[in-house]
Structure formats: C-alpha cells, structure tokens
Amino acid sequence: MPYVKTFDRDQFMMCSWDSLVDPESIARLIDAFVASLDLSKYEIKEASSEGRPAYDPKGLLKLYIYGSRKGIRSSRKLAESCKTNLEVKWLIGGVEPDFRTISDFRKNNIDCIKSIFHEFNRRISGAVEWGFASIDGSKFTANNSKDNNFTKSKLDDRIKWLNGHTDEYLRLLREADEEEDLDDQSDSLSKEELENKLKEAEERLARYKQYQQMMEESGASQLSLTDADAKLMKNKNGFAVAFNPQTAVDSNTHLIRDFNMTNQVTDHGMIESTMAHIKEESPDSIVEAVADKGYENTDDMLACLENGIIPNVITDDGKDGYEIETEYEENDTDASSTKPEDLKKCLHAGVIPDAYKGVIEGMEVKEVRRKVKEDNDQAPKSIYGTSEEMLAKAKEGYFVRDPEANLVYCPTGEILRQKCVKKNGNIRYANKNACRHCPNRNKCYKGKNEWKEIDFTKDQLVKPCRDWLKAENKEAEPEKKKTRGRFHKVKIVRFFLRPDRTKMNQRLCLSEHPFGTIKRSMGAGYFLLRGLRKVTGEFALFCLGYNFERAKNMLGFDKMMELMVKA
C-alpha cells in the first residue's frame, strides 16, 4: 500500500511569510489588535535610546497574548517558539529575542495588561449585546509550595514536635556521656551524630519561633515565604497555596466581562468589587449579577443595590430571598432615577426605587433597640492573666479562650486555633491533629468529625468540658452573668430582596466554562509570577486569550478583523 508522498527536503521553495499563516489564524487578529493600540496610553516602558536597537514592545506584547492562548507561558518556551513556530515568526517579524528580554518585558509592563483586556472588551461591545453577569471564583495555584506556607496551628505542631525531639537528643547525649561504649552499639547513634541532629533541631526551632513572632506582630493568619500574598485554600484536591480570582461572565456571549484578583479564602462579599468596573462603564443603568450561595453577605448585597447592581444570590432551600436592613436617613428622593447616589438616598429613606420594583419587597421603616457602643468597649481580656495561668485553668477540665491571641487551651494543654466565624457571630476553634492523637480523647470528643470543635461567643472566655469534669468527679464552676449594656432606639430601614430564580438556574453553565477552558485548553491552572499585583496581570492575559478565541468563534473572522483595526 503506497503512502502519501512527502516533499523533497532539498527542493527550493519560493513563498512569502504571509502565505505560511492560515488566512483566519488568531495570530492575524492579535497582530491587528496590538498594531492599532497606542501603547503610550498604557504606560508601556520605552526602550532606552542608548546602546543597540531594542525590540519593538508591540511585538513582545503580541508574543505574550498569543502564548497565553496557545498555552506557551514561560519566557524560555516563548523564546524557543520565536525560532520554531511559523505563526510566531510571522507575528513578531522573524526576530528572536532571548528569554531574559521576554521575561523583562512582562515584569516591567505587567500592570498595563488588565487595561488592554478592558480595551479589547470595549472594541467588541458594539457588536454584541451584553446580558447579566455570572460571578464565580476558582483556585489557581500560586508559585509557593505548601512546605513554605505556615498557619498558626502548623507552627504550633512543628514547634511541639521539635521540642520533643530536642529533649530526646539531650537525653541521649547525657546517656552517651555516662556510657563510654555507646559508640560501639550498632543500633545507636554516635555522640557526634546526636550533636549534629540536636544542632539542626535547634536551628529549625529558632526559625519556626521567628516565623511565629512575625505572624503575631503582623496579625496575619498565614505566612507564605515564597509569595507573601498567596494563601492556603481548599480546593477539590485538598489544600493548596493559591489565589482566588473572581470572574464576571456575560450570560449572552459567555465572554469574560471583567475579573477581580483576590487572595481571599472564601467568596463572601465579592459581588460589588467584581462588578465595579462593569458598573463604571454604564453609570446610569442597572446591571445584574448572579452568584452561588458562597457569596451570601447582606452588607455586600446592600452595597450592590446602592450602586445600581442587582445581586441574585442563590438561597437555601425553602427561602425566597434575604432580609436586609440599613440605617434610616431622611432626605429628598427621586425614585425614578437610576444614578447610584439617588438609589442610595431612596434605600436609606425607605423608598423603593422604580428600578427595583419586583426585586425589593416589604420595605418598612422601624424603630429598634440597639446596644450603645461605649468608648471603652474593647475585646474582653482574660480573667486568668498570663498564658501559663490560662493553661493551668484549662487543665482543671475547661476550655479557656485567650481573646488577645485568639486561641483556646483545651484540658490536655493543646492549643485550638480559629477555624471559622459562623453566621451568628460565634467563633469556632479546633485542632484536628492534636485530637486524633490525644490519649484523653474519649473524655471530650463528641460529634461526627474526628476532632473536637468548640464554639465561643465574642464575649465568652471559658467553657467547662462536662464529660471531662464528670470523669474526674468534679462540678463545673457556675458561669458569671454578663453585665447588661445600655440600649437606645434607632430608626432602620428593613426590606426583603427576592432574587430572580430564572437567572440563577442559568448560572452553572455560564461561570464554569471559562475556568475550564483556561485551565485545561490553555494550560493555565497555576501562576508563574508572584505577588497579587503581578498575578493580576498574568490572569488578565488568560482572560484576554480566552476572549479572543470566544469572540472569533462567535462573530466570525471578518467581523473580528473589522473590530480589531478600529482604535
């Protein structure tokens, strides 16, 4: 059976570079778009006039946009593509910058990429009809390993472990001094080996205590050594040091209208900040957003409504919406206006704006009792004094909270760290590693998890471990009654926000698709750069690459080319 005939490698060929690139290649759209940009508007760093001629910044920008769409991300791979990829050679005019030049361009101009992303969306806005925005977040792995990330609980466990090892090495060294033939024992370490291990453990212990001090001074809950802005977050594969970018995906076009780069572990309260730029583009119109239940935050919903954004947040089963309240302010209102300042006046005056009819129901002005906040109101201080005294009290059979350090001592002397803050304001503390290996676990463990979780109110300092006290034949001390504060009457506005269920049912098929394409097709599930500012620019490249391909498939090549050449 004959094979397809291949060309003769020695054959002479006459052709233009343009003929080697597909007529509808995305490289042509990128070339037209970047060529039409006035880079001075975006503060692209100009090359020095001294020395050898510099590479055209437009060419390097084309290279990065093309690379982001094709999954060619590192500066070394981009430099290799300049030599081997025909589309890249056509795109940048056959020059071959080295990887340092490519890397320096990204480093020096990373801040302008998001503005260029907004410019692309502005170009195509005349050819599409925008709908509502579906907001969602996804965890993208940071350039920081878990070994270089520390939480307070992780440091506590490591310091405790090292203290135990240090004590054991010291004991073995004392035995070595007393027993002359220790070095002759085959199953024992030599005195020199023990001294080296002790020195190593002491150095690690000093380093971890330094990290602990840094966290206490800064008040941070986590410490990342490689990328200070990255946080340990939970994802579908467990835990990873990551960022949590938020995207606003359009319902009609499935394009990414905007994004908000964050290192916030949860999605609570992220709707208004993610929609801010979209609202700026349409200051006098009402825009809508849809988000899942993880975005539930009444303060954020109120901020959205004040700025002309209708938040449709998925509710719990059996609920129709959210009850929201704000302070009452008497003022002149214009219910027909859609300007943010007028919307805010209406909401605080107890008047439903015309734009929110059918969205807001049951608005009423009420007088309620509120506790007067005294000037001397501070976080409660422990009644047991020092940490040693708190620990001693805990060992009597109590959970003792240190409000200044925000930790809890358990009856075995272990430290429980804050796990979360519940909706009712209670703070939950736990230490699963300590509980799993606790010899007295049966005295206090209750529940379906494998560790003890204990809740404290913000004013609560001690809780008895009743099973522990019962096992020790002790009675719990009577709880001290709280002193009543002063109260006064204030006027508030209370209303009911009813989300649009039709729009909420469309959310899942909107928000997940772009993230899947970026991570799988574009190979961009992790960041190469470090720091919140730099990863913002890197994620802007991901979104720009995605939007290029999506808009091309939706509008067609000819229409896209027409839009790209227009400044």
Average pLDDT level = 87
Number of helices: 19
Query: What level of helicity do the residues show?
Result: 25-40%
The side-by-side strand order for the widest beta sheet comes to: 17-16-15-14-13-18
> How far apart lie the N and C ends?
56 Å
The low-confidence parts are none
Number of domains: 4
The structure class reads alpha+beta
Sketch the major β-sheet.
6 strands, antiparallel
Number of extended strands: 19
Percentage of residues in strands: 15-25%
Rg, Å, rounded = 31 Å
CA-based shape: flat
3D structure, described in words:
The chain is built from 19 helices and 19 strands. The chain has 567 residues and is an alpha+beta fold. The chain folds into four domains: 18-127 and 549-564, no CATH class; 133-140 and 235-321 and 499-528, Ribonuclease H-like superfamily/Ribonuclease H (Nucleotidyltransferase, domain 5); 146-224; 387-471, no CATH class. The strands form five sheets. Strands 17-16-15-14-13-18 form a six-stranded antiparallel sheet. The chain starts with 25 loop residues before the first helix and ends with a helix.
Compact description:
The chain has 19 helices and 19 strands. It has helices at 26-35, 57-70, 75-84, 86-92, 99-109, 113-124, 152-178, 191-218, 271-281, 298-306, 340-349, 387-394, 432-436, 441-444, 466-471, 501-505, 507-521, 532-555, 557-564, and strands spanning 133-137, 140-141, 149-151, 222-224, 231-235, 238-243, 246-250, 256-260, 287-291, 309-313, 322-327, 360-371, 398-402, 407-409, 415-421, 427-430, 453-456, 462-464, 487-497.
